[in-house]
Design a protein that fits this description.
The chain is mainly alpha-helical. The protein folds into two domains: 15-64 and 101-264 and 480-514, Serine Threonine Protein Phosphatase 5, Tetratricopeptide repeat (Alpha Horseshoe); 277-466, Serine Threonine Protein Phosphatase 5, Tetratricopeptide repeat, CATH 1.25.40.390. The protein contains 22 helices and six strands. The strands form three sheets. A two-stranded antiparallel ribbon has the order 1-2. A two-stranded antiparallel sheet has the order 3-5. A hairpin with a 5-residue loop joins strand 1 and strand 2 (33-34). The longest helix has 25 residues, at 175-199.
Length: 529
C-alpha cells in the first residue's frame, strides 16, 4: 500500500480559503498543467479556452484517477459498503473504516477532493464571470458540481453548498436543501447547454471537445442526457421521503427533449492518463479484492458478467473459483490475498455512470406509476440488463433473462468457517409481472447494483435507500455501539477537514439534522427504508 497522504486542513470552508484556490497555476489530477498567466488573454478568450481549461480538473475529480486519492476517496469506504470490494490488508491493526471505526485521514478525501477540485473551481467560474460569458461551458461545470457534491452529501449528510461564496463562514445545507439546490443547478445546466446546442450544434466541438476528459468526445447532447439521468437518479433517491417532488423531477428529466442516456450513448466514463487507479491498487499494492456479495450473487445467478468483472482466485483452497472476501471480518496478514482480484486493465477509463442505470431508473419509475416516456417496468428492466451485458462484452443475455430458477449462492470461506453465510436472497433474474412490488423492486435494484459495479458511492446509496441487494454484515464491529451488531453503516461522520474549518457550522448542522449525534448509525434524510 502506498501510504495515504495526510491532507491537512489547508483549505477551509470560508470565502478566504475558497478564494485562495489557485488559478495562476492549475494542475489537475489528469496531468493537465497550464499557467494561465503565461497565456495571452486574447488567446485564452478565443473559443472559451480561458474557461474550458478549468473543466478537466472538475471532471476528473468526480472520481479521482490518482491511485492513493482514489483509494481514500472511494475504496476505503464506499466501495466496500456497497459490497463490491474489500481488502485483504490489515490496516491499523484491523480497526478502521471497514469495522466502523472511522479513520479521519481516510474520510478527509471524501470531502477534500470535491471541495478543492470541484466546488472551489466552480467559485472561480463565478468570480471571473465565466458563468455569463460562456454559459454552455458553465453548464458542464454545473453538472460536475452536482456529481461531486451529491456524492459528498450522500456520504456525510449536510454539506456547504448553496451558500458557498456568500459569507465568510459558510452554513451547511440540510440534505433536503442540498437536493433542492442540486435539482436547480441541473435544470440550469440543461437549459444553458440546450440553448447553445439548439442554436450552434458545432459549438461543443469548437469550445469543449479538446477539454472533455470523458468518453463523450465533447458532445453536448450526451452531457445533457447525462444531466437528465443524474437528475432522474437523485429524484429516485428521494422517492421514499418526498414522493411528490420525486415524481415531478423524474418526469421532468425523462420528458426533456434530449432525454436520458440511451444505449447508443454508452455510459459516462472518465479517461485516465496512465494507469487506472483500481488496476494499481489491485495488482501493485494488493489492497483490493472482490467483495463476497459479488461472487455470491452473480455466481449463484450464473451471470456471464462475473467472468468479466473478476478473476478466478489464486488460492488453491478455492479450486479456481471466483470468490470474494467479506468486509469487516477478522483479518490476518496474507490469509485472503489470493482470493479473487478485480479484472482490471492498465488504462481503462473510470465508470462514473453506467448507461444501464438509466433503464433501471425508468423501470422503477414505471413501477411507481410515473410517466417514463413509454415502455413498461419489464421492458426497461430487460433493456438495462442488455445494456450492461453489452458494456462488458458478455454473451448469453437472452438465456440469462429467461432464467427463473437460479438464485444467489451461499458464501463459504475456506479460511474461517465462522464467516460462512446462507444466500443473501432467493431473487431470480426472469421478470414476473405478477409478483408484489417489493419483489419486483428487489429484482430491479439487484440488476442495477450489478450494472453500477464497481462504483461504490451509488451502490452504497441505493443499498441504504432500498435494502437491496442484501449484504453480509460485518462480524468485527468497532463502532462502540454507534452501529448495532448486524446493522450497517448509514453515513460517515465528519472528518477533521470539516471540524478544523468551522466546528461551529458542523455542530449546528449535526444538531439540526441528527439531533447532535455525529454517528455513523444516523440515517440521512432520504434514508427512511
Amino acid at each position: 500500500m502506498k501510504k495515504l497522504k495526510n491532507i491537512k486542513s489547508t483549505i477551509t470552508l470560508s470565502v478566504i480559503a475558497l478564494l485562495s484556490f489557485t488559478t495562476s497555476c492549475r494542475k489537475d489530477m489528469n496531468g493537465l498543467n497550464q499557467d494561465l498567466k503565461l497565456l495571452p488573454q486574447p488567446l485564452l478568450s478565443i473559443d472559451g479556452k480561458e474557461a474550458s481549461i478549468l473543466l478537466p480538473g472538475m471532471m476528473t475529480n468526480i472520481e479521482s484517477p490518482v491511485n492513493y486519492i482514489y483509494q481514500g476517496q472511494q475504496d476505503l469506504g464506499q466501495d466496500e459498503y456497497a459490497g463490491y470490494t474489500t481488502t485483504p490488508s490489515v490496516f491499523l491493526g484491523n480497526v478502521n473504516n471497514f469495522t466502523y471505526s472511522f479513520v479521519s485521514d481516510w474520510v478527509d478525501y471524501c470531502w477534500d477532493v470535491p471541495q478543492q477540485n470541484i466546488l472551489n473551481t466552480w467559485l472561480q467560474w463565478k468570480l471571473k464571470k465565466f458563468d455569463t460569458k460562456y454559459p454552455d461551458l458553465y453548464g458542464i461545470a454545473l453538472i460536475c458540481k452536482v456529481f461531486g457534491a451529491s456524492r459528498a452529501a450522500d456520504t456525510f449528510g449536510p454539506i456547504p453548498y448553496s451558500k458557498i461564496g456568500t459569507t465568510a463562514d459558510v452554513p451547511f445545507d440540510t440534505v433536503q436543501e442540498a437536493y433542492n439546490a442540486f435539482f436547480a443547478d441541473l435544470d440550469q445546466a440543461i437549459v444553458l447547454l440546450s440553448a447553445v446546442e439548439d442554436k450552434e450544434p458545432d459549438a461543443d466541438q469548437l469550445r469543449f471537445k479538446p477539454f472533455d476528459n470523458s468518453k463523450f468526445g465533447g458532445d453536448y447532447a450526451k452531457w445533457i442526457r447525462t444531466a437528465n439521468t443524474l437528475k432522474l437518479r437523485l429524484a429516485i433517491r428521494i422517492s421514499n421521503i418526498n414522493p411528490i417532488k420525486s415524481k415531478t423531477e423524474a418526469e421532468s428529466a425523462v420528458s426533456n427533449k434530449y432525454g436520458v442516456l440511451e444505449a447508443a450513448d454508452g455510459g459516462f466514463f472518465m479517461n485516465v492518463s496512465g494507469e487506472n487507479p483500481i488496476d494499481e491498487i489491485v495488482t501493485s499494492w494488493g489492497d483490493m479484492r472482490l467483495g463476497a456479495p459479488v461472487g455470491s450473487i452473480l455466481g449463484g445467478l450464473k451471470d456471464p458478467r462475473l467472468a468479466k468483472m473478476a478473476l478466478p482466485a489464486d488460492d488453491p483452497a478455492l479450486n479456481g473459483q471466483v470468490e470474494g472476501i467479506r468486509t469487516g471480518i477478522q483479518l490476518t496478514t496474507g490469509t485472503y490475498s489470493n482470493f479473487s482480484k478485480l479484472a482490471t486493465s492498465f488504462g481503462a477509463p473510470l465508470k462514473i455512470m453506467s448507461v444501464a442505470e438509466s433503464f433501471f431508473l425508468r423501470s422503477e419509475g414505471v413501477l411507481r406509476g410515473w410517466n417514463m416516456g413509454g415502455g413498461s417496468a419489464q421492458s426497461f428492466y430487460e433493456d438495462g440488463v442488455k445494456a450492461s451485458f453489452n458494456e462488458y462484452g458478455a454473451g448469453g443475455v437472452d438465456a440469462y433473462l429467461a432464467d427463473a430458477t437460479s438464485t444467489p449462492a451461499a458464501y463459504v470461506d475456506p479460511k474461517n468457517a465462522a464467516n460462512n453465510a446462507p444466500p443473501l436472497s432467493n431473487i431470480t433474474v426472469k421478470w414476473n409481472d405478477g409478483e408484489p412490488m417489493a419483489r419486483k423492486l428487489e429484482r430491479i435494484i439487484t440488476q442495477k447494483w450489478i450494472a453500477i459495479y464497481p462504483e461504490g458511492y451509488e451502490g452504497w446509496a441505493e443499498f441504504r435507500r432500498t435494502g437491496y441487494p442484501q449484504q453480509y454484515p460485518i462480524t468485527k464491529n468497532d463502532s462502540q455501539g454507534k452501529v448495532a451488531n448486524g446493522d450497517f453503516v448509514k453515513r460517515m461522520p465528519y472528518s477533521a477537514t470539516f471540524t478544523n474549518a468551522s466546528k461551529a457550522q458542523v455542530d449546528a448542522a449535526v444538531a439540526k439534522e441528527f439531533g447532535g449525534d455525529d454517528s455513523p448509525g444516523k440515517r440521512l434524510w432520504w434514508d427512511v427504508n
